[in-house]
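Friendly challenge for the regulars: who can give me the structure tokens for this chain first? No prize, just bragging rights.
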Amino acid sequence: MDLTFHPRFDCQLCPTRCDGRSKSAYVFEDDVALSEAAEDWLARHLSDVLGVDVYKAPAQRQGLPDLALIRGDRVLARVEVKAQGRAFMAVQRLLPGADLLPYETVALNLSDIRRYAAQYRLDGVPLFIIWRVKRPCLGEGYWGQHIAPLIAIGNHYRDQRTWRRASTDSDVVDGQHRGVTVNYHFSLKELLPLEELVVEMAGL
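First reply, four minutes later:
Bragging rights claimed.
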């Protein structure tokens, strides 16, 4: 999808403007369910279009990206899958140096991107992060990027794209804080739509 500025992407004019108020609860299980549904669909899709085996990392294996694309005994790539609906409506006010608009903004746990960047630097296996995004102005679709450009963006903007939200009671599951409170943000304009990303993956 072409995200070049268009009046329907002006959040001030949008007739279906997203709620700008912060959620009072971030239900961890709901977020996991959305991500798992996106992960399942993407695993089937990548297997079909790329003709590869797709291995899903067990839930208990902390630290691994969600999917591994495998041909024979070779790991072609790893894929982390995220699902996001709500727009970060206050991004221009809270992160004025981020060069981001609400409709285009997607988030990633800051500790995740640091961990995946370290893993990519360690073994050199291509690592992609793909977001399933659903918003009134955009509809629903998948966008993603190789970790290397995301690292470059992080190096350019540094803390200007980092935001810590307040914790809520729903972040705590079985006595552990599981909700994500520190996020790093990217623009959909910095990502590739899934059909272009698949072409890149096909060349691995």
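The chain has five helices and eleven strands. The mean pLDDT is 84. Your move, everyone else.
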